[in-house]
Amino acid sequence: MPEIKIIDMNADNILEYGVCGYKNIKRAGFPEKVEWLRNRFSEGLKIKTLYSEADGTQGMIEYIPGKYCWRPVEATGYTFIHCIFSGFKRVYKNKGYGSLLLHECLEDAKKEQTYGVAVVTRKSSFMADKGIFIKHGFEVVDSAPSDFELLVKKFKESSPTPKFKSNWEKSLSKYSKGLTIIRADQCPYTVKNVNEISKTAQNEFGIQPNVISLKNHKEAQNSPCAFGVFCIVYDGKIIAEHPISNTRFTNIMNKIRK
C-alpha cells in the first residue's frame, strides 16, 4: 500500500497542496475556491488532504458546522460534510483511504461535541455514494428530487434529525422564465463551466442567461437543487442538478428545443 498521510489544510498551506485536484493558481476556479475557503475557516470549516510523497494529493474531505453548510439542509448542531473523495490515481482507490478521511471527520465531530455528522449523497458525479457512509453507521433520514439522500450518523438517538430545507416547488417558482444558472465558489469546477455555458446559451441558442453566484450559506440553503451550489433551470424546470460540461449543456438544450 502506498505511504500516505493526512494533512490539515489552512489559509497558509492551501497553495502548497491544492484543493479539489486544483493547484495552479492561474487555473479558473482555483483562486475563487481559495478565497471562499479563507472566508470559511472562521466559521469552523475544515479540509483534510490525503497526501502521498510520491504522487501528491490523492483525496480530501471538506466539512463545516451544519449551521453554515452550503446545501439546502437544516443541520444545526451537526458537522456537515460537503465533499469527500480519494484516489486520483488507481493505485489509491479501494484501499480504505475514504474511510480514513471519514474517521477523521467523525473524531473531530465528537471532540466538538456535535450531535453527529450529516451528508448529502447520490449516485452521480460530484457526489459520494452512500455506501461508505452506511458502512460507518449512517442512516438515510430524508430525500430530495431527483435522487438525493440525506444521511446522518447520530452520536445520541435523542438528538434532533436533520432534514432538507427547501420547498422545492416554491424555490423553483422564482425561475419560471428563461435560463438561470445558480453557482457558488464552493465548487471550483463551476467557474470554467459556467463561463462556457453562458457563451453557448447566447451564441447558439440566443438566450441571455441569468447567472446567480451564491454569496453565503443562507443563499445556498435556499437553492432549488439539493446539490446547493450548482443548478441550471430553464423555464421553471431543472435541467442540471450538478456541474456539467458545455457539451452536456448543448446536448440538453438541443433535445429541449427540438
Q: Please estimate the helix content.
A: 25-40%
CATH architecture of the largest domain: 3-Layer(aba) Sandwich
Q: How many discrete domains?
A: 2
The geometry reads as globular
Structural class category: alpha+beta
Report the uncertain regions. Answer: none
Q: What is the strand arrangement across the widest sheet? A: 1-2-3-5-6-8-7
The total of helices stands at 8
Average pLDDT works out at: 93
Q: What portion of the residues fall into strands of 2 or more residues?
A: 25-35%
Terminal CA distance reads 52 Å
What is the gyration radius calculated from CA atoms?
Answer: 18 Å
Query: H/E series, N to C?
Result: EHHEEEEHEHEEEHEHEHEEH
CATH structural class of the largest domain: Alpha Beta
Question: Largest beta sheet, briefly?
Answer: 7 strands, mixed
Question: CATH-wise, what's the superfamily of the largest domain?
Answer: Gcn5-related N-acetyltransferase (GNAT)
| Strands, count | 13
